[in-house]
Amino acid sequence: MTTTVRTSLAEELTWLPDAERHECVRELLAHLMAGADTGELLPFARALTSWRSTAMVWSDPRLADDLHGPFPGDGPDVPRPLGQGVKRVRPQ
């Protein structure tokens, strides 16, 4: 049954490039299966909205190119200071 659902879902996502469609289907199907267990479909809806936004970017070649960078302010990598760990604050 998963193969049928995967195929049907992929057929509905024609607005995504083929290279992106496989990952999208995998992610959305995982959210649907989790939602079937929990009754919570909000993660699926959010993921679908995110993928639609991705498709909009890919549909505009200039925007897609702009988002690949380089970006103003990009500079060299800065090494992490030695001896500086992450301090965790515990709620009281």
By secondary-structure content and strand pairing, the structural class works out as: mainly alpha
Distance between the termini: 49 Å
The poorly predicted ranges are none
Q: In percent, how helical is the residue content? A: 55-70%
Q: How many helices in DSSP terms?
A: 4
Encode the helix/strand succession as letters.
HHHH
Rg calc: 20 Å
What sort of overall outline do the alpha carbons produce when their principal axes are compared? flat
User: For the residues shown, what is the average pLDDT?
Assistant: 83
Largest sheet, strands/sense/barrel: none
How many E-type strands?
A: 0
Beta percentage is under 5%
Description of the molecule:
The relative contact order is 0.10. This protein has 92 residues and is mostly helical. Helix 1 (2-12) crosses helix 2 (18-38) and helix 2 (18-38) runs antiparallel to helix 3 (42-59). It has helices at residues 2-12, 18-38, 42-59, 61-67. The model has no long low-confidence stretch (mean pLDDT 83).
Give short descriptive properties of this protein.
mainly alpha, flat, 62% helix, single chain, 92 residues
Offer a quick outline of the entry.
Helix content is 62%, strand content 0%. It has 92 residues and is mainly alpha-helical.
Write the layout of secondary structure elements.
Layout: H1 2-12, H2 18-38, H3 42-59, H4 61-67
Helix pairs in contact: 1-2, 2-3
